[in-house]
Amino acid sequence: MDRKTALIEFIKNEVMRNKNAKLDENEDLLSAGVLDSLAILQLVAFIEDRFGIKIPDEEVVFENFQSVNALTSYLENSH
């Protein structure tokens, strides 16, 4: 499973708690209320465990977590 698909599945199953939910790759996850501070911490922990990528605290910013595409791009370009 590629990173983008894994992120979508994690967000739908663990954050939204609805595996059948629709989640657009470009949807603003913060404005839509999908991600809050706790969900971002869960997502960071998932990324570290699943992909072995350490995300420094200073990189946990709005721009990097705005959408699935933004997060995937951040992970591909930074790690």
Rough outline: globular
- Average of pLDDT: 94
Using the CA coordinates, give the radius of gyration.
11 Å
Count all strands and give the number.
0
- Name the beta content range: under 5%
Give me the strand/helix succession. Answer: HHHH
The number of domains is 1
Number of helices: 4
N-to-C span: 18 Å
**CATH class call:** Mainly Alpha
Question: What is this structure's SSE topology?
Answer:
Layout: H1 3-15, H2 37-51, H3 62-65, H4 68-78
Helix pairs in contact: 1-2, 1-4
Describe this structure in words.
The chain is an all-alpha fold and 79 residues long. It has one domain (3-78): ACP-like (Non-ribosomal Peptide Synthetase Peptidyl Carrier Protein, Chain A). Helices cover 54% and strands 0% of the residues. It has helices spanning 3-15, 37-51, 62-65, 68-78. The longest helix is centred in the middle third of the chain and has 15 residues, at 37-51. 15% of the residues are buried. The mean pLDDT is 94.
